[in-house]
Amino acid sequence: MSRHKLSNRRARGAMSPNCWLPLFMGMALAARADETRSEQEAFDRYFGMPAAARQTEWTTHFSIGAAVGFNISAKFNENGVFNLPSSSLANGFYDDGYVLTDITGSTDGNTTYWGYQKAGQVQNTPTGQSVVMHKTTSYTTTGNSSQDDGGPFPGFELDYGGNLYHWQNFRIGWDLGFDLVPLTISDNQTLTATVNQNAYTFNVPNGIIVPGPGYQGSYNGPGPLLSTSSTSSLSTPTGTVSGTRSLDTILYGIRLGPTFYWDFANNWSASLGVGPAMGIVSAEYKYNEVIKTTTSTAFNSGSFSGLDVVYGGDVNATLFYHTADKKRPVDLYISAQFMPLGSADFSQGGRDAKLDLSGQIYISAGVNWPF
């Protein structure tokens, strides 16, 4: 065999199967890429999303919107003895009238500077007449009521999140949300009370005719006289406590958790989020009450503040509409959120209010910026 033929045979023998392996791998990868593109195109066509219309890639987003809360209630309790801050007896003011020193200094023990409200305050005595003034010092009551205000309670929300994983038209990310919602819930229930009341009896000088109920005497006079000295007694009539008790609060909600996104149609996406949540509740309890008995009417008002923290969870679903602006992408969204939290409790001096946040629901809408 000649050396030339041996060289040709060796050359042909050098084309072993290993030489074809890179070629086969390249063809396989190209085929797989074509297959992947075909699968993506088929997926897009099935859901009405041509490849050219798919959303551009984004890694983070920020949104702001208006929110409205529903299904929030409060329970009010009022149990114990409640003292009424009132004018000093030395000043001569009472629940149903006044007896004060007139321009003469009442040196003779009488005054023209007095008045009363009801006909029942005037009483006949063996020596003439007297006028009875009443002063309520405290009352005792036990009662509670539930107020299911329901809403709507307007507020706003902020949301910031990121994209962790993207496959075809699906994304997995995370979201940190913040909600701020002012809440006011009032209670107008009338309670039965035992009233501690002092009665002060002032004698009318002989020959003086007491004017009709509602009389208001003056400092300068002239006018019918009334003694400035009195006798007192204590009584505990049954009465009612009416008026309003209200809880004015601001709820700061914080939520964090994973979020799942789906670009399901051209310019449309949806997301589902779930995770833990907490609420910081700042509240002011206000009361403006009227204490009534058969003899007099007294008023009591005041307020106190408190802060409570509650914990729970959050589930939310959001629908996005993507605008056509590719240079400055922006989304419009509408969202529904269920954020069950515990009850925030505020109490002081026998008054108690519990804000029930266990069933709260929020509907929100706003603008989202992916970037």
Kindly state the percentage of residues in helix: 10-25%
User: N- to C-terminal separation?
Assistant: 74 Å
What share of residues are in beta strands? over 45%
Element-by-element helix/strand order: HHEEEEEEEEEEEEEEEEEEEE
* Number of DSSP helical runs: 2
Commentary on this structure:
- The chain is 11% helix and 59% strand.
- It is mostly beta strands and 371 residues long.
- The protein has 2 domains: 19-54; 55-370, no CATH class.
- An 8-stranded antiparallel beta barrel has the order 1-9-10-14-15-16-17-20.
- The protein is rod-shaped and about 105 Å long.
Strand and helix map with partners:
Layout: H1 3-13, H2 17-46, E1 60-70, E2 73-83, E3 93-94, E4 97-99, E5 110-111, E6 114-116, E7 122-125, E8 128-147, E9 153-167, E10 170-187, E11 191-203, E12 226-227, E13 230-235, E14 238-265, E15 268-292, E16 297-322, E17 331-338, E18 343-348, E19 351-356, E20 361-370
Antiparallel strand pairs: 1-9, 1-20, 2-8, 2-19, 3-4, 4-6, 5-12, 7-8, 8-11, 9-10, 10-14, 11-13, 11-14, 14-15, 15-16, 16-17, 17-20, 18-19
